[in-house]
Amino acid sequence: MRFDLVDLRLFLHIADTASITHGAERAHLALASASARIRGMEETLGVDLLKRGRRGVALTPAGQCLLDHARIVTQQVESMRGDLGAFARGLSGSVHVLSNTAAVSEHLPRALASFLKANPTISVDLEERESASIAEAIAAGSADIGIANDAALPDGVRAHPFREDRLVLVIPKGDPLAARRRVRLHDVIEQPFVGLTRASALQRHLAGHAARLGKSMRLRVGVGGFDEICRMVETGVGIAIIPEAAAKRCRRTMAIALVRLAEPWALRRLVICTRVVERLPAPAARLLQHLQQVGGG
């Protein structure tokens, strides 16, 4: 069958108007050309597509079948044009985002959800890493956007403000430590801890600070998220150090208490890090703009 899109669109117009003349006008074709195209389609198929009468035309059963398929084909072509048009405008593709644990768990899910909903032709490849590794990857050009602690950024990486992220000590409600306003890591380092898995960026970060004290954290169990950590703390399995935003959220429904850490590294300013903004691919530039807009929320 040697049909083209002009044939199919012409047939749709004729079916909609019940007239070859009016269908030809809508298709911007001369009546003779439109009639020849319909005859050619009928000859190719070996069946009549239209019943011709004084008051116009009506579809035969074969014509109704062709109409159904023609609508599907033209809709798919329009969808294809829309998707490819988005590529042409630079609005399709994938953005490689690196993020530390706190941002992955607490700050990015809602921000990325709203972005992806508003940009259906863009996908996001999200990977968790430590801040220092994120900064190195951005500087090397192996990722588009990073969310990292600003203290870890080297020269050559652009920093855009995002959120503050404070690490706090989480303890069972009623624990004697709850009466203290602040504690230092060396005050609690001997206690059993609950944390994320040892491979997580946050757990490696905390292990590094413990090592600087000449100690190692006694991690009783590593779980998959901050909610699970707080559940374990609530039951007395151990204490934990997690982002304040997660701890406050869990405190609404769990019997836990928060104590701030008197450590300079506990207050972290999360920034969006990129290479030169003008060199970002269009999808990455659009995500950067979105994250800057929601960063204060």
Descriptive report:
With 297 residues, the chain is of the alpha/beta class. It contains 11 helices and 12 strands. It has helices at 5-17, 20-26, 31-45, 61-88, 101-118, 131-140, 185-188, 201-212, 226-234, 244-251, 282-294, and strands at 50-53, 56-59, 93-99, 122-128, 145-149, 158-172, 182-183, 192-196, 218-223, 240-243, 256-261, 267-274. Helix 5 links the parallel strand 3 (93-99) and strand 4 (122-128). The protein folds into 3 domains: 5-88, Orthogonal Bundle (Arc Repressor Mutant, subunit A), CATH 1.10.10.10; 93-163 and 268-294, D-Maltodextrin-Binding Protein, domain 2; 166-267, D-Maltodextrin-Binding Protein, domain 2, CATH 3.40.190.10.
Overall 3D geometry? elongated
Q: Separation of termini? A: 58 Å
Secondary-structure element sequence? Answer: HHHEEHEHEHEEEHEHEHEHEEH
User: So what's the CATH class of the largest domain?
Assistant: Alpha Beta
Number of domains: 3
As a whole number of angstroms, the C-alpha radius of gyration is 31 Å
- Largest sheet, described in full? 8 strands, mixed
If helices are DSSP runs of H or I spanning 4 or more residues, what is the number of helices?
Answer: 11
Helix content: 40-55%
Topology diagram in text:
Layout: H1 5-17, H2 20-26, H3 31-45, E1 50-53, E2 56-59, H4 61-88, E3 93-99, H5 101-118, E4 122-128, H6 131-140, E5 145-149, E6 158-172, E7 182-183, H7 185-188, E8 192-196, H8 201-212, E9 218-223, H9 226-234, E10 240-243, H10 244-251, E11 256-261, E12 267-274, H11 282-294
Parallel strand pairs: 3-4, 3-5, 7-11, 8-9
Antiparallel strand pairs: 1-2, 5-12, 6-10, 6-11, 6-12
